């Protein structure tokens, strides 16, 4: 799409601009999150279930501003739904978006793993930073390998800013639950975000 991918856009937005805020006039952050969740809900509704398997901010494509809309790309691995995730080398994936059970190999890639990756993307939309970028380890930044172990054990989670709306933060925390069964379905995420988006627009209209 003409707006490029979400990760590239977040890297370009300056800290001081209105677009950094969740309360921007266009409510683009909630809209993008909603569009991604809706795409996941659509995919997960297929029988057999279509799982993305490689969901990251790089695979979220944006339309041009100011009316940002998003769609998902990179469904190549997702279509290999009969291939166990264990046969796909983790080095070929973006480790920062992997769920604990996928990292450890305790479970095949499932819709719940997509939801975990979505929770990571919510942290990116909030902070504009690459996941775990600002977490120091002694005197150096954590490498990808150093990130995997604490994420796999549930000891490390993506960061959020103090300005992140409570509803978004609570939803993200549910998406990032250690146990796959504790994460919401994509449809449940859509319902929450639709409500938050509606409430945000009502506030914008009254200001």
From TrEMBL:
A molecular-function term among this protein's GO annotations: protein serine/threonine kinase activity
PROSITE patterns: PROTEIN_KINASE_DOM
Highest taxon of source: Eukaryota
InterPro entries xrefs: Kinase-like_dom_sf, Prot_kinase_dom, Ser-Thr/Tyr_kinase_cat_dom, Ser/Thr_Kinases-Pseudokinases
Domain Protein kinase: 1-197
Cross-referenced SUPFAM superfamilies: Protein kinase-like (PK-like) (SSF56112)
PANTHER family, sorted: PROTEIN KINASE DOMAIN-CONTAINING PROTEIN, SERINE/THREONINE-PROTEIN KINASE TNNI3K-RELATED
Protein name: Protein kinase domain-containing protein
Species for this entry: Phytophthora nicotianae
